[in-house]
Structures are given as structure tokens and as C-alpha cells.
Design goal:
Blueprint: E1 2-6, H1 12-24, E2 28-29, H2 45-62, E3 65-69, H3 81-90, E4 97-101, E5 114-116, H4 119-133
């Protein structure tokens, strides 16, 4: 299954082990943003952001499952990419599953297919489903 992980950019290092576990289960994790480090010097910030946004939306479109991570401290101001990604995926609701790991932060999070309190629980569920559908 192709899986996209949506989270705050600052949480990318925390999600790398999750990505590795999903890969170990035989899934393709299409969230290349997890390995982004910095903007190339030859691009302006606006050009860089535009390229990242298009790339991320293309990866979400290719995913069968989007998992939004809401763990961690809520930060006011800045960010918001994961929520845009969640909405973009929901707009394709007939084509993808959407899971949430963490707490619901607003009414739209009630629309997810499954919610888990932790990555441990989410990974266990994904593994059980994988075995069931093999």
C-alpha cells in the first residue's frame, strides 16, 4: 500500500522510524518531505515552497492511505501544511483511507476513517489489516 504521512515539518525526524517500520511491513511510504533538509541556494523561498507543495500534493494523490499525525505540542502561527494535506486527501475520499494518530484538533478530524492514540497502536492495526488482506 502507498502511504503518505502528514505531520509538522519539525516532526520529520520523529517520523523517520515510523516510516522505516512501515517499509519493513512491505508498504511504500511516499512522503519524501520527511527527508527534506534545506532549500537549494539557487531557488527563492517562494519557488522552493511552490515546488515542495506540488511535490507533496502529487505524493498524496499517489497514496492509498494518508495518516495525519497530531501528536506533539500545538503551535500557534506558522505551519498548517498537514491540515491542508488532510483536506486535499479528504477531497479524494472515495479513493483513499485517512487515519489520525493523536487527538482530534477540530471538527473535520471527526471525518477520519480510523483514529489511534499512538503510533504503536496504528502500526499494530496496519499490520493486522495487511495480514488479513494478503
Amino acid at each position: 500500500m502507498n502511504i503518505y504521512l502528514a505531520a509538522r515539518f519539525r516532526d520529520r525526524k520523529r517520523l523517520r522510524p515510523v516510516r522505516d517500520k512501515l517499509w519493513g511491513m512491505g508498504h511504500e511510504v511516499v512522503s519524501s518531505w520527511i527527508d527534506e533538509v534545506r532549500k537549494p541556494e539557487f531557488l527563492t523561498t517562494e519557488e522552493w515552497h511552490r515546488k515542495l507543495a506540488i511535490k507533496d500534493l502529487t505524493e498524496i494523490r499517489a497514496a492509498d492511505l494518508l495518516i495525519i499525525d497530531t501528536l506533539g505540542k500545538l503551535v500557534v502561527g506558522g505551519g498548517g501544511g498537514r491540515e491542508f494535506e488532510f483536506g486535499f486527501a479528504y477531497g479524494q475520499f472515495h479513493k483513499k483511507l485517512i487515519f489520525l494518530v493523536g487527538k482530534r484538533n477540530h471538527a473535520f478530524h471527526a471525518l477520519v476513517d480510523e483514529q489511534f492514540p499512538s503510533w504503536t497502536t496504528a502500526l499494530r492495526y496496519i499490520e493486522i489489516c495487511r495480514r488479513y488482506y494478503e
